[in-house]
């Protein structure tokens, strides 16, 4: 009897251990990596398997459970402390022995581990990944995390970043794209400044209004509630993107449990999963929230963010770019000359940060031998040329080199701020010398048409002439009136006038006037046209050209006392 009892105990114990072994899940085996695998190898394995077994892509039976195992395994091995605890105790929590919890307690699976001296368990419920969007028509998540090596698990690194800056390639502090001594950056670290973490700011209603709304900086925002599982993973992806766009992008999170009114007002309250938005300047000068609905991977999210960076800089053809273009408004103007076919990333960022203080332009040039480049006094590219509001030209910097994006933005911001101070000083000096503050009325050309009479200008006053004598008379009248505080004369927040004044040589641009009058006002030596670009309407003054009469006409235009007529066609300068 005793022998039978011993045999029964032995067989029961053997069956127990065999059962435990069958249900054991070793995170190393799940990801298919060795125990001495580097973080880079772990990342690659996780990325490959998560794509293979993602429930949205793999409909086979068991894919859901396998996907959960993969995420759970990566959660342990990607965290150095949890990995150390697992290697030591067989449990990522670091407490040897069987832990509390069971499938009944947690509504999930219980996996026994035997990776160390003590055998423990950890649980992963089937609802865990579902709360991240696995079922019910919700969005699914696929996560990636950058490593300490030169590029992330998605194949983009510093080369991709700097190829979009100002032209050039990274390495050795190259021109607008050089990254001196760079070997890349790990997520959560600043490029070129290792060990400095990228932190996600907590956003409240006050912070949102003060630091985000229409401040010119692009923000990547996460809306979540603490009960939603998965927001930590999304934060990791966001941090990786932010680390690659240091200086161009800020990141924040909105806890909708503590900020319910903000989330409701903005329409960003999360449901079954966290939501990510970009505060974008893509559509207009006023920022707006745009939701990201792509794959939860760093590379597509980064591209999404880059697409929504500010677009306050106007692309111009340097050959047709005239000095009168940049002296239209009271703001100083800056033009970037680079070899890039598209507006460089850094210039877009700077145009957002300083759009209330400058008019931004950029032009593609091939080399300094170009006559238009020589004419500006530029001897090396990339270069920034600026004009004070009085029309005085300055080469702010030529042959620019950078170390990384963030330092470049800081250095060039300081350069622009210095130029703004110079402009204020020059304007103050000019006001003392000329109490009337006379300024030159620009001649309307193809290159400055959008700045003077484009859709951003509410009212454009065009003085058309056919002789030098009539030009001088019109210019004198308009110059006098432009100094007066007429109704709606200057009420825009960015310093631009809500009414602009310009002259038109009707003898050379007769076809332009045909948009307003079939005969092009050919019977008149001079005519004044008030044009509203947004509405496509106009009113003409053909009476006696005196300061008093013209002032009365313009005042009536601004006060809505004059009937406007639809243009025959959209006026175009050729």
UniProtKB/TrEMBL annotation:
Residues 1-22 form the signal peptide. Residues 402-429 form a coiled coil. Residues 173-198 are annotated as: Disordered. SMART domains: DnaJ. Keywords: Coiled coil, Signal. InterPro entries: DnaJ_domain (IPR001623), DnaJ_domain_CS (IPR018253), ER_Co-chaperone (IPR052842), J_dom_sf (IPR036869), Thioredoxin-like_sf (IPR036249). It comes from the Eukaryota. Residues 182-198 have a biased composition (Low complexity). Residues 26-90 form the J domain. Pfam families: DnaJ. This is J domain-containing protein. It comes from Prunus dulcis (Almond).
